[in-house]
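Entry, Tuesday afternoon. Goal for today is a structural model of the target with zinc ion bound, before we commit to ordering more compound. Inputs were pasted exactly as handed over by J.K., no edits. I checked the ligand SMILES twice against the vendor sheet because last time a stereocentre got dropped in transcription.
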Amino acid sequence: MLLSDLLQAQSNPRKAGRGWLSTCPSHDDRKSSLSFRIVEPAKAIFNCFAGCDNADIIKALGLEFPDLFDVEIDIDNAPITSSAGAKPPTAGMIETLTRYCTEAAEAFHGSPAESYVERFGMTPAQGASLGLGYTDGSLKCTYLSDRQFSVPRLIVPFPGFDGKIRCLQGRSLDDDIDAELQGWISPSTVEGGYRWSNIGLFTHETEQADLLICEGPGDGLTSYAAGTDCLFIRGAKFASNPEALAVVEAVTLGRRVFLAGDVDPSGQAFNADLAAHLLSL
Ligand SMILES: [Zn+2]
């Protein structure tokens, strides 16, 4: 199928970075949640940030799966993304993580984790509105190793563009344990070929003009506590991550952006890469 025909099938697609954004036909969409891009060599990829099933999207667009392969690029300077790599978490995986976060959040009020987040300048109410959680180490989940989560932790859910939790991290509240168990620990995937999201979006209820982009959940908590919306991207190699790029393109649209990579060489490369990408949009 021609690229121009695939674009024609969408409702007013507008170019955003290395792809296009349009209204998702599969749900009541007011946000341009449908991301569309061509991945090397010629495969079309649709992704609804609200989590619509791909089969439903394809059908609602009046397309069929074979239309997504061997796309003929008939538009000048069409952006093409390099290969997608590991798959995002399934709906079942997201549900399992969400259930874990909900249970941990129920234990947050009055817990050691609630006092711990004061070091980020955060009030208990702000922590609760982000859905932060506490576990004494006994809360179990398929994707968390017993050893890693055997100690008391602050649980930080990573909400995406649509508010769905596609990753979480736990930070040990105890400074006197093995280095391996300290710091931020992520769940492992038991099924191969999947990757948890490496991005989190902390937004206030009122719409804000400013957005800070930083590297990890600690800076994200500090930014949110100070009243600024924040997108954090773990691992500075975001440039090779189409999912992270798609979210960056969607959330930075029309906003003033502050790049706040760490003060080290990889943090500075993070700022430079992101700036170059945003300026190319
Ligand atoms: Zn949708």
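The chain is about 25% helix and 20% strand.
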